[in-house]
Design brief:
Blueprint (H helix, E strand, L loop, with lengths): L20 E7 L12 H15 L4 E5 L4 H7 L5 E4 L7 H4 L2 E8 L5 E11 L5 H4 L11 H8 L4 E7 L6 E2 L4 E5 H4 L10 H12 L3 E5 L17 E5 L2 E6 L6 H14 L10 E6 L8 H5 L24 E3 L2 E5 L4 H14 L4 E5 L3 H4 L9 E5 L3
InterPro entries: Agmatine_deiminase, Peptidyl-Arg-deiminase_porph
Organism: Escallonia rubra
Keywords: Hydrolase
Length: 374
Amino acid sequence: MDLEGTPAVPGYHMPAEWEPHSQCWIGWPERPDNWRDAAVHAQRVFTRVASAISKFEPVTVCASAAQWSNARCKLPQNIRVVEMSMNDSWFRDSGPTFVVSKTRSTAGSLEQKVAGIDWNFNSWGGIDDGCYKDWSLDLLVARKILAIERLPRFAHSIILEGGSIHVDGEGTCLTTEECLLNKNRNPHLTKDQIENELKAYLGVKTVIWLPHGLFGDDDTNGHVDNMCCFVKPGVVLLSWTDDEADPQYQRSIEALSVLSNSKDANGRQFQIIKLHVPGPLFMTDEEAAGVFEDGEGKPRLPGTRLAASYVNFYIANGGIVTPQFGDEKWDDEAVRVLSLAFPDHEVVRIKDAREIVLGGGNIHCITQQQPACP
């Protein structure tokens, strides 16, 4: 069912990721021009991610008709596998952004309704700058998920991906100018106009604009979910490096300055927790050679710096599912920081998360939480 108007008018807002989920949605990778060796390595790691999350909340994995049997065979039986066409498996960006509305019933109890925003999508930049030239199937992913769950849909013509926004559930949104103000998204809209759309659709009052995303995150033009996220209202994790020679250093310093001089929607100063990036890490000759180049997808070139970040984790119901990159020093440090930041959650490591970042994102990018509806 399509709903008219904007979500904020009837009282919908995007909840924080740490609020209760009914399930998590994940796509199944298969593109040979993005996932090396016909996605066999990526599928192994996606299975680990789905399995880890399923210990905390239900998981639904969507796979194409050609891959359904393969996915069903590899995934644990407690994970639902449904058939769905897609151009690639980044459900944070092609899936719906869920919003909730709390209303008082006639009996006086508080009831929560769930709906979804179906943003427009152009493969992170369109024909000239995007990651692949045909995204027609991805345009239907959000609508299909909402139809499966029989949830209302708010359609929007603005081009926006879920990885470009983070919210605290109390009126504050984080994003980056590098992404949302990029001319390959919505060149006809000003910064103020885009901010007004975020407020109208996410139900937020304050938008914090960081100048840039993570260095090397060229596929998404600097999504915020690789750079900075909320731990709780008033507290954020920021991708960091102590190496002043690293191009990431200046980006982190700029973000630190913005956050230090900003307040959230409730007037709080931000507590900023630094989460050091791994590496730097680079695509090897062997990894690049495993990607099938057919002119449809963005080339994966040896020596490319990988957009690897520990901020790109998933908050499950009682769990933190976090990437690990084989960098012993910073892998362990990330788990230490996350354990302190989320003392009531179990931190679960996903080894070989490098296989996901080779495709252009990580755990947060491949997942989409659906809020609980009591």
